[in-house]
Amino acid sequence: MIKNFKTYTLLIISLCFFACSDDNDVAPLFDSDIDARVAAQIDNYKKALVSSEFGWVVKYQPKNSAGIYNVHLDFNDDDSVEITSDYKNGESDLKTSYRVDIGHFPELVFENYTFFHELFLAQGFITEAEFEFIFDDISDNQIVFRSKTDRGENPTKITFEKATQNDKNLIDSFKTFYNSLETESTTNRILRNFVVLDAQNNILLNSTFSFADAERQGVITTFDTEKGSISSTSHGIEILENGFELIDPFIFNEQEIKAFVLNNDGTYTSTDGNMTSIIGYNLAPITTALVPSLFSEDVDAFRVNHRRYVYNDKSSNFFLPQTSDDFLNLGVASSLNQIVIVFDDPNAGGLSYFVFPHINGSVSFLVFNPVVISGERIVFQLDFISGDISDHITMANLLLDPNGFYINRTNETNASYSLINVSIPNFRFSVHGL
User: Fold this and answer.
1) 3-state secondary structure 21-67
2) Is 169:260 a contact under the CB 8 Å cutoff?
């Protein structure tokens, strides 16, 4: 008993001694050890980044529905990194600083504005891209990161592969390829078909194809001539040296359509079983006659109910979702995120016109004479142009199509209408009346 009492007494005295000690007497012993281990870990991660002789290549897919962005990264000892990407012709490939740090987990942070930040901000954060990544695994030839912001059990992964001497040049060549894929902004042609042919070259499917560069998606849209409705599927794209692949294949007649080769005439072809798929301009008309199911008396009220209508793309909180992907992608490729329609402006001598706002704050005008074919459609006949529309020629050609637009009320707002192009009904956009 006495022995136990002495033991308890000694324990109590020891506890009192530690309780009375100044925290500073103990903490540095642990802090210095932890700080040293953290510094060593950071140093090891940084050494891994700078160790690759020719840098790193990345096939970045920020979300499962997006396509692939090709990136080359060359990390330096002075905390700088040189980035080469195939996004927007590399216009945001700026030398920037990086930081290896440890928050909750070891992470790589690109500190200043560059490709990753540009993609992060694109069209109202539509891509779900990031510029901070958590180290997940390191091996001799690759470093695997995971998303810092993704929630759930399967966060997005991004893998750095050790580059070869030619990888950077290959990514430079991809820039040109994407320019040819997104040709809506450099041609006056509007109708880009996606057709599927049988062995006798009969058309089995006639759809449209558009390319969304921000999400690296090809959008295939089919028009139902009886119902006047459209249906679209989106497919992430990965560029190859001689063409591209749909990451998620397009399925037609139970056949996967996936790999396309670029031809000398600018078309893309895919051969699958007994079928050949072609992407190219003006291969076949979407419609050859008016579509009565799209006729509406709404066209007679359109000019009267409101004098001003506004279209906004997805970067705006006022985007109206019945706008088709074909029109949306054409707007982005034409550098237009808003279009205003004004009828009979009393402050402009009663003129009617389209307004194209520019990024630099200036505006251009397409002045038109509205011709209403009662119960059917409206045609915007060009009167004159004011301002520079060189970046918007393709959009202007669509809006001034001599066959005009069907007009239908929609349920998107209490004053919304859909304008459906008569020649290519896959191009349709919604506006709100003011």
Assistant:
1) CCHHHCHHHHHHHHHHHHHHHHHHHHHHHHCCCCCEEEEECCCCCCC
2) no
Rounded CA separation 256/236 (Å): 15
How confident is the model over 89-123, as pLDDT tens digits? Answer: 888 888 889 999 887 889 999 988 888 888 887 76
User: What sign for the dihedral angle of Cα 69, 75, 79, 80?
Assistant: negative
- Give pLDDT tens digits for 60-81: 988 888 899 999 999 999 999 9
- Phi, psi (rounded to 5 degrees) for 352: -115, 145
Can you list the domains of the chain with their CATH numbers?
Answer: 50-166 (2.40.128), 183-281 (2.40.128), 292-433 (2.40.128)
Task: Please state the φ and ψ torsions of residue 391, each to the nearest 5 degrees.
Answer: -80, -10
- What is the spatial distance between Cα 235 and Cα 140, in angstroms, rounded to a whole number? 33
The residue type of 313 is D
What dihedral do alpha carbons 323, 324, 326, 331 form, nearest 10°?
Answer: 10
CB of 428 closer than 8 Å to CB of 294: no
Distance CA 165, CA 120 (A): 29
